[in-house]
Amino acid sequence: MIPGPYLLYLGHSDDEVGIKTSRGLAAFRRDDCVGEWRHDDCPLTLGIPRMDVAAARAAGARTLVLGIANAGGRLGDDLIDDALLAIAAGMNVASGLHQRLRDEPRLVAAADAVGVALFDVRDAPAHLPVGNGKRRAGKRLLTVGTDCSVGKMYATLCLRDAMRARGVAADFRATGQTGILIAGDGVPLDAVVADFIAGAIEVLAPARDDDGWDLIEGQGSLFHPSFAGVSTGLLHGAQPAAIVLCHDPMRAHMRGLPHYQLPDLATCLEANLQVARLTSPDVQATGIALNTVKLDEDAARRLCADTAQALGLPCTDPYRFGADPIVDWTLTCFAPAAPAMTASR
Amino acid sequence: MIPGPYLLYLGHSDDEVGIKTSRGLAAFRRDDCVGEWRHDDCPLTLGIPRMDVAAARAAGARTLVLGIANAGGRLGDDLIDDALLAIAAGMNVASGLHQRLRDEPRLVAAADAVGVALFDVRDAPAHLPVGNGKRRAGKRLLTVGTDCSVGKMYATLCLRDAMRARGVAADFRATGQTGILIAGDGVPLDAVVADFIAGAIEVLAPARDDDGWDLIEGQGSLFHPSFAGVSTGLLHGAQPAAIVLCHDPMRAHMRGLPHYQLPDLATCLEANLQVARLTSPDVQATGIALNTVKLDEDAARRLCADTAQALGLPCTDPYRFGADPIVDWTLTCFAPAAPAMTASR
Lengths: 345, 345
Fold this sequence. Notes:
- Two copies of one chain form a homodimer.
- The first copy, chain A, is an alpha/beta fold.
- The first copy, chain A, folds into two domains: 6-120, Rossmann fold (3-Layer(aba) Sandwich), CATH 3.40.50; 139-333, P-loop containing nucleotide triphosphate hydrolases (Rossmann fold), CATH 3.40.50.
- Chain A has helices spanning 20-28, 53-58, 77-88, 105-114, 152-165, 177-183, 197-204, 228-238, 265-276, 297-311, 318-321, 324-333; strands at residues 6-11, 33-38, 63-66, 92-95, 118-120, 139-145, 170-173, 213-216, 242-247, 284-290, 315-316.
- In chain A, the strands form two sheets. A six-stranded parallel beta sheet of chain A has the order 7-8-6-9-10-11, with helices on both faces.
- In chain A, strand 1, helix 1 (20-28) and strand 2 form a beta-alpha-beta unit.
- The radius of gyration of chain A is 21 Å and the shape is globular.
C-alpha cells in the first residue's frame, strides 16, 4: 500500500488530459490529498491548496504522486529533479508513468539514502495465470465504452459509492494506473502480457458469496483498433452479470485516430453483450453513463433522457447527476427471486 | 537469424503435442534439419535420422533447437544438461520455452566460453508501437480458428507454398514460437504486452505494393475464453483482405477447457468477419482448412466436401490434400479488375 496523505503533482503540465491521474485522486480520495504542487507555468488546478514540498511535508504528506502523463510516459529531467526534492524532504514517490522510477539510478540512490520507497504502479503482478473461463460465484459489473477515456473509471467509482450509500457491499476493482492509485491496489491491464489479460481479471475479481458486487473498471473499447484486444480479454475475464456502457457525447472521433468514427450506442452495446456471453451467457446491460462535462445542465439532462428513451435503459451522468438510476435498475435486475407462490388448497 | 542446419531435440518427450515445434521444423524446414535427438525413453519420432550431438555436429548441425514444450515452459535439469552437451560440441542453442536460456547462468557461461549463441525466440521485440488502424496497402490473409492448436500455422505455410508454386509473391508472417523458428523471424504474440498486440501485427505485416500476399499466422480463437483478446488484436492489426477459418473436426471441447464447447463454423466465421471489419471493411472469408489427421482419407475428403457445401466456401486439409482450392478462390476474389469495357462509338 502507498502511504497517504498525498501531494499531487501537476508540475509544468498545461494539458487537462495529462493530469487525469492527479485529478482522479483529488476527486475520489480528496481527504487523503493535502494539496497540489504546480509550477508557475502550469495553468491548471485541481481546486485544492497549492503547496511546495516543504509545506506539504509540514501538512503531513507522506507520498508525492506523479499523477501526470506526458508524451511517451517518460521521466524527464524536470520530473526527476522535482521527485528528488520530495525524496530529500522525506517523502515516498509514486508513479504510473511507463518509464519506471526504479530504472532511474538517481531516484533509487536518493530513496535508499533517505529510507523512503518508490512505487511504480504500472508494474504487472508476477505469476498471473492464463484465464480458465470457469463460472465463478458473485455479481460483477463491468463498465465498457464507445472509446478510451470516456469516463469508465469515474462511472465505476460513482456506481460503487451509490451502492454503498444504500448499504450494498460493493468493491471497486481497478485496471488502470489512476484507478490503482485510488483503490490502493489493482492490475495495470495495459502492462499485462497478452496471454494473461483474461486471467488477470479472474484474479482481480475472484468468486464472492456475500451477495455484494465487484465493480470492474473497463479499459479501451471493442471499437478502438489499438486496444480492442484488451477490452475483449477484460470482458471474458470479468464474467460480468451486468455491463454499463460509457460514452462521451462530444467525442468527434476515436481517441487518437481521426480516421475512425465512434460506434453508435446500440451497436456498441450489442457487440459488448455478444463478446461477454462467451463466459457469462446471461449478461445484461443495465445502464448508460454519459460524460456531459462539456454540456450545460439542461442539454445534459435532455441528452440523458433522450438516450434512456432510445435505448430502453437508465441513462445518467453518474459524476454530475449521481449513479442512482443505474444502481436502481441494476439491483432490480439482480434482486433475489421472490419466494415462489404456493397455491393454497 | 539462427544458423542452420539444425539438430531437433525431442529429449525424453512422450507427448505428441509437446514436440510440435520440432515437428513443425521437420515438416517445413526439412532440408535444414540434419536429425533428431531423442533419448531411449522417447517413443516419438519425426521420421528423420536419430543422432546424438557428436553425430549431428559431424553432419554439419550448427544449432540445437529445443523444439519441445513441457509443463510451465521450464528448463529442467535434463534439458540444461543436454543443452550443455550441445554447447560443448560447438553448437548454438535455440528455444521457444517460456523460461529463457539467458536466465540460466550455466548456459550463459558455457556459451560464452565456447563462443556460441543462445536464441530465445519468445522474446518480444522492443519498442513496439500502439496500433493505429490506418489502412495500408497490400493484400493480407489471416488464418483464424475455432480453437487454439487446430492447424493455423500449417494452413498458413501451405497457402504460402501453394501461392509460390504458381508464381505469386507470398510471405509467411509468423506470430508463434514454431512459426518464428520456421520463418527465421516474426513476433511471438503471446509475449507482447496487451496494449501492443495490434501494433505488433502492423509492424510484422507492413504495407506492400508488389501485388503479393502477406500470409499471417493466426493465434487462439475469438471463442477461447483465455486468449480471445490476442485473436481480436491480431484481427485488427492484420487488416486482412481475406480470412481462412481453421478447424479440427475431432476436437471435443475448447483446448484445456472441458467446460467450453467449440463454436459452429458459420458462427465462428461471422464473428471473425465482424471483428475484422473494424479495420478492414471489405474483408472476405475465402476458405476453410480442416485438420483431418485423425480421419481416414475417405472420411476426410467427404468431410471437406460437406463443409464446403454447407458454408459455400472451398474446404480442404491443406497439409494432406494441398491448399489449391483455397488459393484458387482467394486469387479469384482478389484478381485485378478486368479493364473496363469502353463502349465503341
